[in-house]
Each structure stands twice: as C-alpha cells, then as structure tokens.
Amino acid sequence: MSIFEYNGSAVVAMVGKNCFAIASDRRLGVQLQTIATDFQRISKIHDRVFIGLSGLATDVQTLYQRLVFRHKLYQLREERDMKPETFASLVSAILYEKRFGPYLCQPVIAGLGEDDKPFICTMDSIGAKELAKDFVVSGTASESLYGACEAMYKPDMEAEELFETISQALLSSVDRDCLSGWGGHVYVVTPTEIKERILKGRMD
User: What is its main location (predicted)?
Assistant: First the structure.
C-alpha cells in the first residue's frame, strides 16, 4: 500500500459561473480501520481561497499550519489577501522546497480571482501544478471521482446546481472506494457568500 493511501481521502473542486465548490470526504482511517468520521480536509485561507489536502493526515495538518503562517506574513507585509494564483505558487514552492523528504500530501486549491473568475488547481507532493478549467480531484478515490465528474459536470452552473453536482459526484465516488467515505463536507463560494454543508453518506 502506498503511504498516500494510508489514511484514505477524496477531495474535489469544481468551477461554476462566478463561483466554485470544493468538497471532501470525512473519514480518517488507518488502512481499513476507521479512526474518526469528522476529519477536516478542507481549510479556509481567506474568504476567497480554500485548500483541500489529501494524503497522510499528519502531513495534512503540518502543511496547513505552515500555509496559514506564510499567508499571515504576506497579509502583514502586503496589507492584502493573496490571489488564488499567488497562493498556488506559494504552496508549490513550499512543497518543492521539501522535495527530498516531501510532505505526503496532494493539495487541491480553489479560489475566486479578480473579476470573480474562479481558479482551481491541484499538484503532486513535490509541487508540480496541474491547472484545469472544469474540475480537479485528488486522494484515493481519484479514479472514480474523475469518472463521476466527467459524467456530471456542465459549464457555467449556478451555485445551487454546482452544489448538487459536486455532492452527487463525491458521494457516488466514495461508495466505490473502501478507504474514503463516511459523508462529505462541501463549501460553495460565490462573490457574496460562503455556504458550508455536511453531507450524510453511507456509514459502512
């Protein structure tokens, strides 16, 4: 088993019309044994940028703390929040810095840039960025997430339809992966509001 699969995870981000959604499962496991069913994989950096971290749970928490620290330094120095593209470059640089003993994480970054244009990207554990205009996924449920998102995604969805689409894609994907699941956690972000919802899924 790969160390990336040790705790199990599923993270997906999807763009809509001037909005984006980011979702993850809630299971924390040690291989096939479930330890917790309320693990937080998605974190808010500021009101317009969110990051989801799949991979080894201890590295997820360590990397998140480093990113919050670096973003606060940026806010103090620049007196503004980071743009999503800038934040993605920061994450990439921090991961590449540790390339000889990497953080065992695969981040998914989603944000609203200038003119409320959604931005999403993912990267591997040493910071190689992969940009997309529709959706990005990471975690042990990646394969089934790709299939579900390909089938369900439509361009320019409104916030409510986007929530429904990403929720159905996440729930149907984690049912096909024994290392992730136990419900879902979804954020839908528009220029005016942030909606956070907890999904109930199969509990087996």
Answer: cytoplasm
> Are the CB atoms for 82 and 45 separated by under 8 Å?
yes
pLDDT in the model for residue 32: 84
DSSP annotation of 176: T
Q: Do 11 and 27 contact (CB within 8 A), yes or no?
A: no
Residue type, 91: V
Residue numbers of the domain that contains 148: 3-199
Strand 33-36 and strand 184-189: pairing? unpaired
pLDDT at site 4: 85
**Into how many domains does the chain fold?**
1
Q: Give the CA dihedral 203, 60, 188, 145, nearest 10 degrees.
A: -60
**Structural domain includes residue 204:** no
Give dist(CA 159, CA 150) in Å, integer: 18
pLDDT along the chain (204 residues), means of 10: 86 93 92 87 93 92 94 94 94 94 93 91 92 92 91 90 93 88 91 92 77
d(CA 5, CA 164): 27
